[in-house]
Write a structure and sequence with these properties.
Blueprint (H helix, E strand, L loop, with lengths): L1 E4 L14 H12 L3 E5 L4 H4 L12 E3 L4 E4 L2 E5 L4 H13 L3 E5 L4 E3 L6 H4 L20 E6 L3 H8 L4 E6 L4 E6 L4 H7 L7 E5 L5 H5 L3 E5 L3 H6 L2 E3 L3 H20 L8
Helix pairs in contact: 1-9
């Protein structure tokens, strides 16, 4: 079975690397032949620091589907159309927004050094923080704050983009139109009902809609309605659910049909 895991708030918490208990749980899945895919809002660059080195070659979806990595190499990116990117940048300037703009590897960050996003941004200095005009292309945009948030949000909703509003952090997350975690899975050749998904936020909705089973971590209203199962937002509950699913699959594989005599 394929298992698709969101990262932040699902299997890693407060921006910290995966715990030893979580690594053991995921390794147990892999050792039994299950395929694991990480699917995050983070670009691939910022996925790597929270994963142990032996997982860096595992399949990954970053930027809510805008990046796809297989075998430790980014195999595809989905940037914004240039005209749309220019409209977004115009709105960033008009509303004096603080932002994180990701290119295919480098980025432009103008927010506070104390913002939680900054703590998770390129901690290993794998890339460069450049002026936004110097980025070759724009793949993902996160608005941290702006002068008139509601008016900016209204303007953004008129653009052909995928827009997520994360209420807990009060940030807005933008991806190119038609790009989400499900399209990232499709780029890997994964079909509907061929996987189990774990997630905790609005950007996991597309994953849940096409999953065979889905586990909502926490109490996100829309995800909870779509999920087949739900666990509390605490690492021990997620680890326990992974272990339970592994045991279920083992039990299923060990069950042999009984042939009745005629």
């Amino acid at each position: 079975m394929k298992f698709i895991f969101d990262l932040d708030g699902t299997i890693c918490f407060k921006g910290r690397p995966l715990s030893e208990a979580m690594v053991r749980a995921l390794d147990a899945l892999a050792q039994k032949g299950h395929e694991i895919v990480f699917a995050s809002a983070r670009p691939i660059r910022d996925l790597l620091p929270v994963l142990p080195p032996h997982m860096h070659d595992w399949p990954m979806i970053g930027g809510n589907g805008a990046f796809v990595a297989i075998g430790g190499r980014i195999v595809s990116t989905s940037p914004f159309d240039r005209t749309v990117a220019e409209e977004i940048l115009k709105l960033l300037r008009t509303y004096e927004a603080e932002y994180l703009v990701d290119s295919n590897w480098d980025y432009a960050y103008t927010g506070s050094e104390e913002h939680p996003i900054r703590r998770n941004l390129d901690p290993e200095r794998r890339a460069q923080n450049l002026p936004v005009e110097a980025l070759a292309e724009i793949v993902k945009v996160v608005v941290l704050r702006s002068r008139d948030g509601e008016r900016m949000l209204e303007a953004l909703r008129k653009l052909p983009i995928v827009l997520y509003r994360h209420g807990a952090e009060e940030i807005w997350d933008m991806s190119p139109n038609g790009v989400d975690k499900w399209t990232g899975l499709q780029a890997m050749g994964i079909a509907p009902r061929q996987y189990i998904a774990f997630g905790n936020d609005a950007n996991d909705v597309a994953l849940f809609k096409h999953a065979l089973r889905s586990v909502c971590v926490g109490d996100h209203a829309e995800l909870s309605r779509l999920a087949t199962e739900r666990v509390a937002s605490a690492e021990e509950h997620v680890v326990r659910k992974i272990q339970e699913m592994l045991e279920e699959h083992q039990a299923s594989n060990n069950t042999c049909p009984v042939r009745l005599k005629s």
